[in-house]
């Protein structure tokens, strides 16, 4: 069934030919509305196509209340399809009227005149895409004739761009798409390396505002020798940024690394000894100390660090790593804190384990704080970063393949990366190793596919349903509730006879009395009325 705007005479022929195929096909217009549903899709969903046409196929954070709206929303195209032009996705229609899950391996094409020209296929190519003729079993249907699309020029004169979704495709549906994507990313990577050859860190890659700001901040830090604060979430490789700044700004300077949370004053002195001796050897000597987790460093160690910084002056540079939004530690002398320190720390909440930064040390960070954004905030940079990591693995002889499939790239873009860049590197190393082993066994494996990634990534599906907080529970409390329910149920079956209940529970009567006393003193356990649903061998449930 098609929307009226698609019902010219030449498109009726197209519709009849598509409807003869069991292949699920649908189209979404530029406003996000579902405008075409093939008979194959309607049959697979066991619904009338007319009931779906005109509904919004757009993913939102909240699942629509109307079951049909929720079903159509699950058919939405992947995010960023306008930029990628094509994407592969395993679609799971949210059909609440049917039990079980249906998965449709789908190729999404963003079709406008430019897309058709860039892809290198015209009317005949589109015809080939729409004449795949897969049956419900996934096998080609030889009875389906080829579908002839009208000439592209005539088509685009009467219609705006839209998304065409064709089910029944494997992860690499179109030969050449992976190569084209890899070629484009490689060209971007080469151009970036030529333009920013001094910035070798992969975190600087990309065109996003976060990437541009990070590059400017690093260039500023390299150009002048000053104390520096780097703020980032876990897994953002912030220490690599600090080391790059150190290498680019000086070559002869000792670089001492300290794990702040593990320090006390005595251990700090011992860790700084090499740098302090170097400074004493010559008044012209310089040194840098990198402190991991400054906002989680004990205040005693921070006070000792500040004393060394004060005695060494500008010759001892401090580079500090903190969690996002570091907070200020309590101080008995507010006069030690200037406006720049207040702006940096006072509004911060820090991590849950953070002690805070001593005001005397916070006062030293007068320049801009380098804030490394999490990978989830830099999705547009991810393809380029991933390509750079893969190229690095190839240079090191750890991978035989030189590209990701479009489906693998889509999977990486979709995944939230809770451990940020560290997790991305580890995932690509895992995928590269697995794909390389597969390519040695079969020449058909030419790119990294979604199946090569760890399970958490290849199986991830975004959901607007229960938040992580809903799934949290206290194990000890739940065990206590079950125990209380079991005791009360057994006592009820024993007609209140505590000795008999203890015998059935295989515990002593004294132990049973202690547990009953605990239940009586704990209102939460007394509220365990769900014990009424418990059944034992040979007993029928009350429900």
From TrEMBL:
Keyword Secreted among record annotations? no
Q: Which GO terms describe its molecular function?
A: ATP binding; sequence-specific DNA binding
UniProt-listed GO biological process terms: regulation of DNA-templated transcription
Its signal peptide is none
User: Is ATP-binding included in the keywords of this UniProt record?
Assistant: yes
Q: Which Gene3D superfamilies match?
A: 1.10.8.60, Homeodomain-like (1.10.10.60), P-loop containing nucleotide triphosphate hydrolases (3.40.50.300)
Q: Which residues form the Sigma-54 factor interaction domain?
A: 204-433
Q: Where is the PAS domain?
A: 10-66
PANTHER family attached here?
A: C4-DICARBOXYLATE TRANSPORT TRANSCRIPTIONAL REGULATORY PROTEIN DCTD, TRANSCRIPTIONAL REGULATORY PROTEIN
What this protein is called in its record is Transcriptional regulatory protein ZraR
User: Can you name the source organism?
Assistant: Stieleria bergensis
Q: What is the lineage of its organism?
A: Bacteria, Pseudomonadati, Planctomycetota, Planctomycetia, Pirellulales
Gene that codes for this?
Answer: zraR_1
């Amino acid at each position: 069934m098609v929307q009226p705007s698609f019902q010219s005479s030449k498109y009726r022929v197209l519709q009849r030919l598509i409807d003869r195929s069991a292949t699920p096909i649908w189209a979404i217009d530029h406003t996000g509305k579902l405008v075409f549903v093939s008979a194959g899709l309607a049959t697979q969903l066991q619904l009338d196509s007319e009931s779906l046409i005109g509904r919004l196929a757009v993913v939102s954070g909240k699942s629509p209340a109307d079951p049909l709206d929720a079903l159509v929303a699950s058919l939405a195209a992947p995010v960023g399809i306008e930029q990628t032009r094509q994407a592969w996705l395993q679609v799971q229609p949210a059909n609440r009227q049917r039990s079980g899950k249906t998965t449709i391996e789908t190729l999404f094409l963003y079709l406008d005149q430019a897309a058709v020209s860039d892809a290198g296929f015209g009317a005949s190519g589109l015809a080939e895409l729409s004449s795949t003729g897969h049956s419900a079993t996934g096998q080609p249907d030889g009875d389906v004739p080829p579908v002839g699309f009208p000439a592209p020029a005539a088509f685009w004169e009467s219609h705006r761009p839209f998304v065409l979704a064709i089910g029944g495709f494997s992860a690499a549906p179109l030969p050449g798409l992976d190569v084209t994507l890899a070629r484009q990313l490689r060209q971007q990577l080469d151009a970036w390396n030529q333009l920013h050859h001094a910035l070798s860190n992969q975190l600087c890659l990309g065109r996003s505002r976060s990437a541009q700001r990070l590059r400017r901040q690093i260039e500023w830090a390299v150009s002048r020798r000053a104390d520096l604060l780097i703020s980032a979430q876990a897994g953002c490789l912030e220490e690599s940024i600090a080391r790059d700044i150190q290498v680019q700004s000086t070559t002869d300077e000792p670089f001492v690394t300290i794990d702040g949370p593990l320090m006390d004053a005595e251990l700090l002195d011992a860790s700084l000894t090499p740098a302090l001796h170097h400074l004493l050897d010559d008044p012209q000597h310089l040194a840098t100390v990198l402190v991991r987790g400054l906002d989680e460093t004990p205040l005693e160690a921070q006070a000792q660090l500040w004393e060394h910084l004060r005695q060494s002056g500008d010759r001892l540079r401090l580079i500090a790593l903190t969690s996002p939004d570091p907070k200020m530690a309590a101080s008995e002398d507010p006069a030690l804190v200037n406006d720049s320190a207040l702006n940096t720390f006072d509004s911060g909440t820090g991590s849950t384990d953070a002690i805070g930064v001593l005001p005397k040390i916070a006062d030293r960070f007068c320049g801009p704080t380098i804030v490394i954004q999490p990978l989830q905030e830099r999705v547009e940079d991810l393809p380029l970063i991933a390509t750079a990591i893969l190229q690095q693995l190839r240079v090191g002889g750890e991978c035989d393949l030189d590209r990701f499939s479009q489906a693998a790239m889509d999977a990486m873009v979709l995944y939230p990366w809770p451990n940020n860049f560290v997790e991305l590197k580890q995932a690509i190393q895992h995928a590269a190793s697995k794909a390389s082993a597969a390519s040695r066994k079969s020449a058909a494996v030419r790119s990294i596919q979604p199946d090569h990634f760890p399970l958490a990534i290849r199986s991830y599906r975004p959901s607007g349903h229960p938040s992580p907080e809903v799934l949290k529970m206290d194990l000890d409390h739940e065990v206590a509730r079950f125990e209380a329910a079991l005791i009360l149920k057994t006592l009820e079956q024993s007609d209140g006879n505590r000795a008999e209940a203890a015998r059935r529970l295989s515990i002593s009567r004294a132990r049973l009395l202690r547990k009953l006393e605990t239940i009586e003193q704990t209102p939460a356990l007394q509220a365990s009325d769900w014990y009424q649903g418990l059944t034992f061998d040979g007993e029928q449930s009350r429900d």
